[in-house]
Amino acid sequence: MNIVQFPDKYTxxxxxxxxxxxxxxxxxxxxxxxxxxxxxxxxxxxxxxxVTLIGxxxxxxxxxxxxxxxxxxxxxxxxxxERAGFTxxxxxxNFIVIERRNSLLKYFRKxxxxxxxxxxxxxxxxxxxxNGEIEGWMEANGFSEEEINSITTFISEMVQNVCQHSxxxxxGVLCFQAYKTINGESFLSWAIGDAGIGxxxxxxxxxxxxxxxxxxxxxxxxxxxxxxxxxxxDKTRGNGLSRLYKAAQKRxxxxxxxxxxxxxxLHIDVGQLKKIxxxxxxxxxxxxxxxxxxx
Length: 295
Description:
Blueprint: E1 3-5, E2 9-10, H1 15-24, H2 26-32, E3 34-38, E4 44-45, H3 47-64, E5 67-71, H4 76-84, E6 96-99, E7 117-121, H5 127-140, H6 145-165, E8 172-180, E9 186-194, H7 198-205, H8 216-226, H9 240-251, E10 254-269, E11 272-294
Organism: Paenibacillus aurantius
Protein name: STAS domain-containing protein
Domain STAS: 1-108
């Protein structure tokens, strides 16, 4: 069968499991030429989940010519995704079909600023528009000017990385969400992804030869913990991921960085911030997710 059944929640920690499941069905999916990502029973999808859904479809199409159908969740989660941009008219990739098994019209009739929104970008000229939206959302939900400047700077750097170095065959994609909970807690989550050559190959192509023998997850670790970049002669440049990692540690935020077959990040488990470093089945490109809750 070419159907991939998604878990109840598709968020940062569940991404590796989904990759493993797709890998276990890959030969069948390739022989059929199509894949169904079935989220009908899923109740929550975060920005990293939405970005990596597109990334998984792009990987299977670019690598194997496989087309994909995304079955939206029933109820609120499906409406949330639809309003974020998961509609046939909004998605720009013609090898992805969006399917709704039940009508979602009764959900979220009004505009809801708590929802995530997808942006597709292809140039640095898109940064100003994206950051303008993000600044407005963060201001409306109680984030300080320092936090707003920090997040928009990180996102600008990540967009620049995609545009300048990823060689992605499709546009980059970003999803952002910010709101206050009913308890007054400020929350934000954002994710960015591309279908390009990955961090390791990007660095090798730019002349960083010390990492040739490293696997993907070690390259990510070296980049974010030691500041390895294409600008080895100028330590003030090229360290966006390293600064993002330090910011996540300081704020006790969850951070996942997946690039090709490597995953490195920070995950909150039973109240403790823990490092994650592991292999995942190959998903071409790079996906980054940042998740922050604070009272």
